[in-house]
Amino acid sequence: MEVVTGALPSVITKLGELLNGEYNLQKGLKGEIRFLQSELESMKGALEKVSSTPADRLDIQDKIWARDLRELSYDIEDGIDTFMVRGQGKEQGNLHGIKKFIDRSVGLFRKAKIRHGMATEIRDIKTRVEEVAKRHGRYKISSDVAMPVMIDPRLFSQYTEAKELVGIDEARDELIKILEEENEVSMQQHGKIVSIVGFGGLGKTTLAKAVYEKIRARFDCCAFVSVSQTPNLKKLFKGLLCDLGKKNNEETLDESRLIKVLREFLQEKRYFIVIDDIWDISVWKMIRCALPDNDVGYAIITTTRIFDVAEQAGGAYKLKPLSLNNSRKLLYRRIFGSKNKDNNEDREKCPDEELAEVSDRILKKCAGVPLAILTVASLLACKTRNKIDWYEVYNSVGTGLENNLDVKNMRKILSFSYYELPCHLRTCLLYLSMFPEDFEIDKDRLIRMWIAEGFIKSEKQGKSLFEIGDSYFNVLINRSMVQAIYGTDTGMPRSCRVHDMVLDLIRSLSTEENFVTVLSDMDSTSPSDTIRRLSLQNVKNSHIMAHASRSSLQHARSVVIFPSEFAQAPALGSFQVLRVLDLCECDLSQAKSLKYLENLYQLRYLGLCWTSISQLPEEIGNLQFLQTLDVRGNNRISWLPSGVVQLTNLMFLYIDGSTKVPNGIGNLTCLEQLSRLCIDGSTINIVEELGQLAALRQLEIELDEWNDKVLECLRMLQKIQKLDISVHPGQRSIGGLDAWVAPRHIRDLRTVNSYWFSILPAWMNPSLVPDLTILCIAVRELHQGDLEILGRLPALRTLSLVVDNENLGILHGFVVGAGLFPCLVFCSFSRFVWPVVFQQGAMPKLRDASGILAVVLRAGGRRNCQQRCWPRLGPGKPAIAAVGHGWPPVL
């Protein structure tokens, strides 16, 4: 389902299932369903066209029609889903005799009644669809009516006076130094390309303009052009020629001829060109064709919001936010500058200590983004200078409620990135407005929610929905829409935050689309009559919750409640079509907290981690559509109820090692992730059932003691990508996995608390496991050749090695040669007898290391060696070896 098309894609599919399924529809109903399918297909196409136009440029009648159709699509899907659940029902195979006859008769009567109700609803839906279409036609405004002229607010950044800029000198000088560097590549090409990349409003264009003005006099000719999202290359090339000083009339030339003219003109000139605001790498490649390498030198700067574009253009330069000190200067200069124009020092100070405190809080929300600071400054400038009014502005940032001209311009600048996203990614981004500001959003949790809502569709053969969701998440990072938070051990995104300015944009859009309703004491708006998704944040005011209770909650699809607010939540019985219920970290110790849970028949996601519950209802088996069950952090749950094994659509099951699963888990054939399963003598038979879970991709398992059945089970799990296996402390399982061969697509293997491998297995090499990214293993015996094989694994980012060479009497050292471990970010070596020597160029991306005492060689001191070998290694991180020129090392 997409925000621009509502639930239409899903509805059209489900109407097809009604036609083809065994639902015994009433006579004549199939024709009406086919009519609906055809009509909704056409409407879906029209909605997709509407979605390509920014909201502020849409005709008001189109907006109303799109909103009505989206709301209708939700209602249609809810009705179909309800029918599918109730119409199928469950057969009770344990009844006999007259009791079975009576129950069967009652069941047939009930199904007939449901089918009659469905027929009535389909006809009502048809009437509503026809009315929406007719209303749109009745009030359609002529296309000849003039639309207001839209001014692109990004233009202003190109004409900002240099004296008004703050904190740009350091970045400008750094960029100039990069452009002037005489490294090996620039000596060959006599030119340099730098791509400034960063978040919308961060000041990329301003920085590029500052560099341009500073050094343009050093070149024979210069040009500064903007590309935009819908580039006209012919116009752009003509603009380049004009800026460069080419006087000839080129009006009649096509793109290929213009490229030729540009190349000929620049071939013998030292030129400097800025290409601002690139959105597509293919556009850059066309522009690059017109900018020749030459023997006299050139400099090219590009700006973009997209990291992939910057990397492919070359010389990616990630623009940093302003420091707190520079942020203060910019804020105060804009607010207090008019009265102190002749005194820069006074303009950059806050005249009131009371206001200084709240302004620092505001600046924390702005996170050093100049656009955000200037926008907030315009709001504060209109307020009286007292703490109460300034706190009012502080509380409004990120809510989507402010609507003055500067806020609208800020949203418009950010919205360029939003509308550049594909429709399905816009939906996924808007869903992030469910979370509070400055909240660290766990990647896996978010992806499972997207799946439950139906935002992720299967696109690629062999790719799971979770893997597709992971690619969606990475695109949002790449497009600078969210701020990634990286794992220290992998250097890969594990969570994200939404910048307050982006949150303001998506909250505003979500409110307009009735996509998400956020209830908070900070939010003074009244909830919609129909709530589709509900997020409760900091709700202590009972009047707000009472109003929501009076609103229609029966159509809510997602409910996320944040800690300490559960007492204010409506009863679960209020929700009839709920798909996502996340109560993570809420106190559910009272038994009545989960009352009516078993009646949430449409539920796909149930998040109950760290909620202090002691048991789940046996009737949880009623939740036939459930995909995610997360009960981690509840150590009072000793057993999952037997009803869990009826959840045949379950894909993700997360429990603690203290929670045991019942027999029958082999029925969960859709299960892809299982963590963390503890198996002891009372549950050993579960191991055999695990082998039936052919779809399993991630398994975390803890054994009370080694059992050969585990090996047989692992051999059957050919889709495994992540395996974390451990044995109870005090138990040993030397060589337990020697006979196991990992599947080719294994990515993450962790077996560190026992010597599961006697030697490095033959399959652990680049040709057989090319995707291996995380390797944490204990190997009884390791040799120099083994380390070299591991060093050639092309995707390896995390390596933790434990060896037992000393106890085996193998006393030799190891050398890691240049070029080995090209992608490694984290490294830990334990129980190595001799220090490991690293040659220059080994592990070039290393950021974190531990485990081996650094050795100082005659070639240089410890500190210098570390910096020379691993420039990315953070301050305070221990060096794990020394750079040597021979063996053994000289102490």
Automatic annotation (TrEMBL):
<dbReference type="InterPro" id="IPR032675">
    <property type="entry name" value="LRR_dom_sf"/>
</dbReference>
<keyword id="KW-0433">Leucine-rich repeat</keyword>
<comment type="similarity">
    <text>Belongs to the disease resistance NB-LRR family.</text>
</comment>
<dbReference type="InterPro" id="IPR038005">
    <property type="entry name" value="RX-like_CC"/>
</dbReference>
<keyword id="KW-0547">Nucleotide-binding</keyword>
<dbReference type="InterPro" id="IPR027417">
    <property type="entry name" value="P-loop_NTPase"/>
</dbReference>
<dbReference type="GO" id="GO:0042742">
    <property type="term" value="P:defense response to bacterium"/>
</dbReference>
<dbReference type="InterPro" id="IPR041118">
    <property type="entry name" value="Rx_N"/>
</dbReference>
<dbReference type="Pfam" id="PF23559">
    <property type="entry name" value="WHD_DRP"/>
</dbReference>
<protein>
    <recommendedName>
        <fullName>AAA+ ATPase domain-containing protein</fullName>
    </recommendedName>
</protein>
<keyword id="KW-0175">Coiled coil</keyword>
<dbReference type="GO" id="GO:0002758">
    <property type="term" value="P:innate immune response-activating signaling pathway"/>
</dbReference>
<dbReference type="InterPro" id="IPR002182">
    <property type="entry name" value="NB-ARC"/>
</dbReference>
<dbReference type="InterPro" id="IPR044974">
    <property type="entry name" value="Disease_R_plants"/>
</dbReference>
<feature type="domain" description="Disease resistance R13L4/SHOC-2-like LRR">
    <location>
        <begin position="555"/>
        <end position="848"/>
    </location>
</feature>
<dbReference type="Pfam" id="PF00931">
    <property type="entry name" value="NB-ARC"/>
</dbReference>
<dbReference type="InterPro" id="IPR058922">
    <property type="entry name" value="WHD_DRP"/>
</dbReference>
<feature type="domain" description="NB-ARC">
    <location>
        <begin position="173"/>
        <end position="325"/>
    </location>
</feature>
<dbReference type="InterPro" id="IPR042197">
    <property type="entry name" value="Apaf_helical"/>
</dbReference>
<feature type="domain" description="Disease resistance protein winged helix">
    <location>
        <begin position="434"/>
        <end position="506"/>
    </location>
</feature>
<dbReference type="GO" id="GO:0009626">
    <property type="term" value="P:plant-type hypersensitive response"/>
</dbReference>
<dbReference type="Pfam" id="PF23598">
    <property type="entry name" value="LRR_14"/>
</dbReference>
<keyword id="KW-0611">Plant defense</keyword>
<dbReference type="Pfam" id="PF18052">
    <property type="entry name" value="Rx_N"/>
</dbReference>
<dbReference type="InterPro" id="IPR036388">
    <property type="entry name" value="WH-like_DNA-bd_sf"/>
</dbReference>
<dbReference type="GO" id="GO:0043531">
    <property type="term" value="F:ADP binding"/>
</dbReference>
<dbReference type="InterPro" id="IPR055414">
    <property type="entry name" value="LRR_R13L4/SHOC2-like"/>
</dbReference>
<feature type="domain" description="Disease resistance N-terminal">
    <location>
        <begin position="8"/>
        <end position="92"/>
    </location>
</feature>
<keyword id="KW-0677">Repeat</keyword>
